[in-house]
């Protein structure tokens, strides 16, 4: 399993600089949409975030990095800097961002000297250059010795057209990529409580320390995507911030992080719900699973830290029983056990995700469906409502992703929930649709002999 760039050999442009100089705002402006969380609080970006941008007719892969700071390697800021350095090592072009409003800091000069030794083309971007103070700060950036500063205001969009033109001029000569019929990637989101091991899992899948990890809970603050490929094609994986109980979520940055996690889940085809197997499954995990079902996503339950579990059989049975009782609408949900830290069992995850995607995309033939429907009605007739038997005539599948069926019949909309569950369970068992949400709609037919609107 190796990292796979979405667009093949696209040129890579990395945005770097010290904290709170506006790197994420610049990143969002260049790709044309909000992909990175922006906040006045310094150090919000902790992991490298990627996105594709079209700059003057040239497609590039942009990397937003954590702020460059001097720190010991074992500290959080040291790990963030190491991640940024990896992004720079991949780059064909580096945008070194400084804050023109606050002026050139000693850290800017330090990292400018460091960048010169990295043997990478560098463009100096003086951000927040709006107004008289910003213009003066942009001139001060000449002192860094990295050439002419490009004065921009990423927040207000000033100077962005010129910046895009200069970036295009500095791209490598092989930047014209032939448009090919791209294979659509499978979109997969990794969701769960804080400190369940989501980022460690993504690192294990990629085979590199892409995400910042550590004992501190809540390290991931934004939804961060990465690309990998298995034998069946490309997969876009999104790692998300941990989702705590709503009552514990603080306003501001954490609330935005949770919103980004939910948005990533809505965009995914398969959601991997990561649990700390040593702690078991609790109500918050079930709430997240119910949210996945409500959004109609396929789900794989990932029991991480399996190497820490002493009685594996009892743990597996307890989790399975809780799911069977509390998540009846996703009966048969696939479960994978592994240790993201050691890598044991991680290779079983992607094949399981692929199978879950196939079920989510499944379509059942109309003839097979109606043969089953007739048999189901014969085995267990629809109930009486107001002393009259409901007449259900036929069923059809109207869509997949998730599998959605419509039952037609006289007063079909009056079918009670218990009978709907009977039909859904029969569909799941007969047509092998484990673990995926199944939508069942009922549409009654109007009796033409009944007067409408009092006529």
TrEMBL record:
CDD domains documented for this protein: EngA1 (cd01894), EngA2 (cd01895)
Family matches, as PROSITE patterns: G_ENGA
Start and end residues of each EngA-type G domain: 11-175, 186-361
Record key words, sorted: GTP-binding, Nucleotide-binding, Repeat, Ribosome biogenesis
SUPFAM superfamilies referenced in this protein's UniProt entry, alphabetically: P-loop containing nucleoside triphosphate hydrolases
Pfam families linked to this entry: KH_dom-like, MMR_HSR1
Keyword Cell membrane listed: no
Positions of GTP 1 binding: 17-24, 64-68, 127-130
Domain of life: Bacteria
Binding site for GTP 2: 192-199, 239-243, 304-307
Similarity annotation: Belongs to the TRAFAC class TrmE-Era-EngA-EngB-Septin-like GTPase superfamily. EngA (Der) GTPase family.
Function of the molecule: GTPase that plays an essential role in the late steps of ribosome biogenesis.
Subunit structure: Associates with the 50S ribosomal subunit.
Protein name per UniProt: GTPase Der
Gene that specifies this protein: der
